[in-house]
Amino acid sequence: MNNKQYYVYIMTIKSKTVLYTGVTNDLIRRVYQHKSKVFEGFTSKYNVDQLVYYEIHQDIKLAIEREKQVKAGPRRKKLELIHITNHDWSDLCGALR
Predict the structure, then answer these.
(1) Is the pTM here over 0.90, yes or no?
(2) Buried (b) or exposed (e) across 43-61, using 16+ Cβ within 10 A?
């Protein structure tokens, strides 16, 4: 039995104008990496450091498929996902512990 969990997540910046969608098997570690700017790239360049949405999946293939679906969708759909689950756009990082 596979007890692993996979996460599709959306992060943003302080002004909420930039959205980044990703997938990981360790959300706490991945958010820390974004916040610490461990890797060069989009999230470090634009200072993407606030977790505003995530969903949990049990199957990596389904998680990757969902990530692609969210990424390919219009910005409006991403905003709806965030608004439904996190109306205030709070940084959910603290809730992960």
Answers:
(1) yes
(2) beeeebbbbbbbeebeeee
pLDDT by residue for the chain (97 residues), tens only, comes to 568 999 999 999 999 999 999 999 999 999 999 999 888 889 889 999 999 999 999 999 999 999 999 999 999 999 999 999 999 999 999 887 6
Domain ranges of the chain: 6-96
* DSSP secondary structure, 12-79, as one string: E-TTS--EEEEEES-HHHHHHHHHHT-S-SHHHHTT--EEEEEEEES-HHHHHHHHHHHHHS-HHHHH
Q: Is 6-96 in CATH node 3.40.1440.10?
A: yes
Query: What gap in Å lies between CA 35 and CA 96, rounded to an integer?
Result: 14
Nearest partner of 31 among 93, 91, 94, judged by Cα? 93
